[in-house]
Design goal:
The protein is an alpha+beta fold. The protein is built from ten helices and seven strands.
């Protein structure tokens, strides 16, 4: 032992004179320490790996470190005299504590970074939602609705799915504003918007064109089903009253089914259908195809 390379005994370099004074049992222990590493170093490395595997589980990490140190103390006490093993036993808790501190700091940094990223993502979602909504009704604004309509028109043309558009106008809304004021008119607009949302699916789109006009896009919906949806909306709105002594509200609805035209032509056709509903006496649904002027 020690003829070819230096030997470490209990974590410290051993001279040839010191090795000569060791009995055979101590020499076997010294070689065992040389085989498994320099003293407490393997113990510290193993603890470090365990702590990083258990980061975030502080109580379990403490139990593992304490039990590991206890077993190492018992093993050293059985292998070598206590006074000779004392340095390694003393280094054990220090190494374990260092592992815990490093793992805990790493975990706290990871959690803080995760919280920062989560807050940024949440803020971005809120900003995106605010930029896409109309402030009074929280319906889609015209820009976002037109972008969605263009996407769905392209998809409808590619796959042959039906696509319907409803243009909705509150009947006699100007007289409501003139009689009860603009704040009351805003409240009516919000109630009508809520009614419209209740009769569409999650995949459909509802937007506000401006003033008392709304626009609804029904995905993969043909003319017959779209008119049924419009009638349900019309009946629902009739349950709203401008005031306690006033009659029920009503809406006129114009429908158009996509037939391959441009976005402007599609909306214009629904607008013509709405005009027909108004001209026919209001509070009704009218549909128009591209072949009808």
């Amino acid at each position: 032992i020690g003829q070819q390379k230096p030997c470490l005994v209990y974590g410290f370099p051993a001279s040839q004179a010191a090795l000569a004074r060791l009995d055979e049992n101590d020499k076997r222990v010294a070689c065992r320490f040389e085989l498994y590493g320099a003293g407490i170093t393997p113990f510290a490395i193993i603890l470090m790996l365990i702590c990083f595997l258990l980061h975030g589980q502080f109580a379990l990490m403490m139990w593992v470190v304490c039990l590991s140190w206890l077993f190492s103390v018992i093993a050293l006490a059985l292998l070598v005299p206590l006074e000779q093993a004392a340095p390694s036993i003393a280094i054990g808790p220090t190494s374990g504590l260092a592992c815990i501190v490093i793992a805990h700091i790493t975990e706290r940094m990871r959690i803080e970074q995760f919280e920062i990223v989560a807050k940024l993502n949440n803020t971005n979602r809120q900003l995106q939602l605010l930029s896409s909504q109309e402030h009074l009704t929280q319906l889609l604004n015209r820009r976002v609705f037109d972008e969605a309509l263009e996407r769905e028109m392209a998809r409808s043309e590619r796959f042959g799915h039906p696509l319907s558009l409803l243009l909705i106008d509150i009947d006699n809304f100007k007289s409501i504003n003139d009689t009860y004021g603009h704040l009351h008119g805003d409240d009516i607009i919000k109630k009508v918007a809520m009614c419209l949302r209740q009769h569409v699916r999650d995949v459909d789109f509802v937007g506000r064109m401006g003033g008392d006009e709304f626009i609804v896009m029904l995905i993969e919906t043909d003319k017959n089903f779209a008119i049924q949806v419009a009638d349900r909306m019309r009946r629902e709105v009739s349950g709203i009253h401008a005031s306690e002594d006033a009659g029920p509200l009503s809406i006129s609805v114009g429908h158009a089914q996509f037939e391959g035209e441009s976005l402007g032509a599609f909306i214009e056709r629904a607008d013509k259908a709405l005009y027909q509903a108004k001209k026919a006496g209001k509070n009704r649904v009218r549909s128009i195809s591209s072949g009808v002027s």
